[in-house]
Amino acid sequence: MSKTRVFSGTRATGRLHLGNYFGAVKGYIDLQNDPKYDCIYMAVDVHTITTPYDHRTLAQATKEIIMDYLAAGLDPEKAVVTIQSLVPEHVELAFLFASIVSVAKMQHLPTFKDKVKQHPDNVTMALLNYPTLMAADILAYKTELVPAGLDQEPHIEVTREIARRMNDLYGTDFPETKRFATPAQYVPSLTGEGKMSKSVEGSSINLTDDLATIKKRLASCPTDSGKGSTIPEKGGVANLLTFVEIFQGSERKKSYEADYFGNGLRYGDLKAELAEAIFDHLAPIREKRLELEKNPDYVNKVIKEGAEKARAIASATLAETKRKMGFYVQN
Ligand code: TYM
After folding, report:
1. What is the pLDDT of residue 1?
2. What is the pLDDT of residue 202?
3. Residue ranges of the chain with pLDDT lower than 70?
4. How far apart are CA 186 and CA 20, in angstroms?
5. Contact at 8 Å (CB) between 145 and 4?
6. What is the DSSP string of 186-230?
7. pTM over 0.90
8. DSSP 3-state assignment of 159?
9. Within 13 Å of residue 314, how many CA atoms lie on the same side as its CB?
């Protein structure tokens, strides 16, 4: 029986944070460890240039993602781990897909509108094409399952639409890709508003942060008087309790809730205990990360071999697509 193809990626904007880890990378690891799946995971550096970026640090930021992936538990013996720009077939396929996607449709996507608000002076063709490139990432491997956070659902919907339209127009056989959700598919921000995100200052904790940084980040999470008859469903307090549940379990969360309804919840103590729990939970990842930093040759080898394996598949899909679209293709 043939295996189910899995693809996912993370933009190369520095280090992985808890949102990336719990919302996506844990799913990558679960699927890589199940022999039913054939997994490909990339640092998607071409997507990084769709918003303002620093060309002096892009290559390093890309490698940081790969090292965080490996430290978190991605295993090159079980999954392909590499960098998107080393597989140029993605960009070519994205251009072909762009020929069947309307500008109006792309302009209406909520993710596009958010980025326009964040960077009003940088509304580029590359930004408009973001979902088309993501569809190319996914469909270059005829991917059926994408482990990713809830925020990626609109993009995966676009991917399905592109697949359907390509199949109707040109007789390709792209599958209808589905998202694979982890239990924590939406990790909240430490600011009390929205999701944890690299682009929102003070909203995130990185996988390799030290204890002092984790404490500092939690300290700035907004709270309330710590007493009342209902616990807010949104905001800083709700988010802190979500983190308690993730790192310390539901029993600890319940005991804090009991304090809230009773004598009062002491947020200073909660934050100190939670910081230690997060730091301890991440210890194996930090240790592995240090080892990898001492071994750049190994990391480079993983990236190179991963790119070779990925290109073999993506170039076959590209040639097949071009042939079906009517291009002259040499065998
Ligand atoms: P990116 O780089 O923003 O995030 C990488 C992954 O982390 C997930 N994630 C979260 N999950 C839960 N809660 C959060 N607070 C949180 N923050 C981030 C994201 O959902 C994502 O799965 N467009 C993608 C990158 C991409 C891609 C792809 C993903 C390009 N091509 C093909 C899958 C398949 C993005 O910007 O992810």
Report:
1. 73
2. 83
3. none
4. 10
5. yes
6. SPBPTTSSSB--TTSTT---BTT--HHHHHHHHHTS----S--SS
7. yes
8. helix
9. 26
Q: At the topology level of CATH, where does 4-186+295-325 sit?
A: Rossmann fold (3.40.50)
Residue among 75, 72, 78, 49 nearest 61 (CA): 49
Helix (H) or strand (E) holding 177: none
Residue nearest to atom 26 of ligand 1 (CA): 9
Please tell me the predicted confidence (pLDDT) of residue 329: 85
Determine the pLDDT at residue 117. 94
Q: Which of 15, 151, 182 for a ligand 1 pocket mutation test, highest count of atoms within 8 Å of Cβ?
A: 151
SS3 for 101? coil
Task: Give CA–CA dist 23/26, Å, rounded.
Answer: 7
Reading across the β-sheet that carries 145-147, which strands appear in turn?
Answer: 79-83, 37-44, 4-11, 145-147, 178-180
DSSP 64-94: HHHHHHHHHT--TTTEEEEEGGG-THHHHHH
Active-site residue, 198 included: yes
CA of 267 to the centre of ligand 1 (A): 31
**Which pair of tokens denotes residue 214?**
């984790």
CA torsion sign for 22, 27, 32, 38 is negative
Specify the pairing of strand 37-44 against strand 79-83. Answer: parallel
Whose CA is closest to atom 18 on ligand 1?
A: 20
Local structure of residue 150 (DSSP, 8 states): G
Does residue 9's CB lie within 6 angstroms of at least one atom of ligand 1? yes
Question: What is residue 188's predicted lDDT score, i.e. its pLDDT?
Answer: 92
134 Cβ inside 6 Å of ligand 1: yes
Distance CA 150, CA 274 (A): 25
CA distance 224 to 231: 10
Determine the pLDDT at residue 311. Answer: 98
Of 3, 26, 36, 115, the active-site residue reads 115
| H or E stretch covering 98 | helix 89-98
Assess whether 227 carries a catalytic annotation. no
pLDDT at 14: 79
